[in-house]
């Protein structure tokens, strides 16, 4: 008689048990993030872009990872590889033929890389415990890296006066240069057809979240999280919701008692299972959860 045991974890297994099971253990600290970056860069098609990316990853990523570990506090624990994966996903959205020519200039590539680096490492910082993590990150980033200049005046950098101070998070890229998010804001005109409790007054923060969601929703799976009662619970990308033939939209309220297992089961309720695969029902290609 032969028995096959399938275990959920090997946390309490001895080295002898692991070796007899034919399991090869690789510590994430030993593997590191560099193999992922090398594989991602190899999939890029422009040779000159590859050379620039190798330089920028070596220049920006190690100091940022060290700073995130020793200096800053995030809303949730984030592994080093998650920072790097987010950075690569954002770079895929920006390093396109429309934004960069076939022979991209070093300065232009670095401009997009810095913007993606700021949001990949700084978007998860804690800003609700009396210490503005984004402000501290901005001051550190501006003092650490000086190749790309943000349009922050000398009297405001480094920033010291909290919400009134401009930071690296207050700018976005358009037509190959930085502009403040306030440039996107228009005078608010309330609609008589929308009730007061359903009215959302746009702010710089909502524009930032909307911008990133519209950027990533085009084909990169992403999960948005933050502190309770934050804007992520009421914002949905309008471009995605307008494409009714492509996106299936479902909204679900989360509570403090929800675990990862209950959230997964709730999300899978709207999917069709065919064998071992889950797919979006009907003609839609994507499922958008809020």
TrEMBL record:
It comes from the Eukaryota. GO terms for cellular component: dynein complex. Transmembrane segments: none annotated. GO terms for biological process: microtubule-based movement. Residues 56-182 form the Dynein heavy chain AAA 5 extension domain. One of its GO terms (molecular function) is dynein intermediate chain binding. Pfam families: Dynein_AAA_lid. Gene3D superfamilies: 1.10.472.130, P-loop containing nucleotide triphosphate hydrolases. InterPro entries: DHC (IPR026983), Dynein_AAA5_ext (IPR041466), P-loop_NTPase (IPR027417). This is Dynein heavy chain 17, axonemal. The gene is Dnah17.
């Amino acid at each position: 008689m032969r028995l096959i045991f399938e275990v959920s974890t090997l946390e309490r297994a001895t080295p002898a048990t692991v070796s007899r099971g034919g399991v090869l253990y690789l510590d994430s600290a030993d593997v590191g993030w560099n193999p992922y970056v090398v594989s991602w860069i190899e999939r890029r098609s422009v040779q000159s872009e590859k050379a620039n990316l190798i330089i920028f990853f070596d220049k920006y990523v190690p100091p940022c990872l060290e700073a995130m570990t020793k200096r800053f506090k995030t809303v949730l624990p984030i592994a080093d590889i998650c920072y790097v994966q987010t950075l690569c996903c954002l770079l895929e959205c920006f390093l396109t033929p429309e934004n960069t020519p076939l022979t991209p200039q070093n300065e232009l590539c670095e401009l997009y890389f810095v913007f993606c680096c700021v949001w990949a490492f700084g978007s998860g910082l804690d800003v609700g415990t009396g210490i503005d993590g984004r402000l501290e990150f901005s001051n550190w980033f501006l003092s650490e890296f000086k190749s790309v200049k943000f349009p922050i005046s000398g009297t405001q950098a480094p920033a010291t006066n909290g919400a009134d101070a401009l930071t690296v998070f207050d700018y976005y890229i358009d037509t190959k240069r930085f502009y403040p998010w306030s440039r996107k804001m228009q005078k608010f005109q309330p609609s008589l057809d929308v009730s007061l409790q359903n009215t959302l007054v746009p702010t710089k923060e909502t524009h930032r979240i909307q911008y990133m969601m519209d950027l990533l929703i085009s084909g990169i799976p992403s999960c948005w999280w933050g502190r309770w009662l934050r804007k992520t619970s009421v914002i949905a990308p309008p471009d995605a919701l307008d494409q009714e033939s492509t996106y299936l939209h479902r909204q679900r309220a989360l509570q403090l008692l929800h675990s990862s297992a209950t959230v997964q089961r709730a999300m899978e309720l709207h999917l069709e299972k065919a064998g071992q695969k889950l797919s979006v029902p009907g003609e839609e290609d994507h499922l958008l959860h809020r």
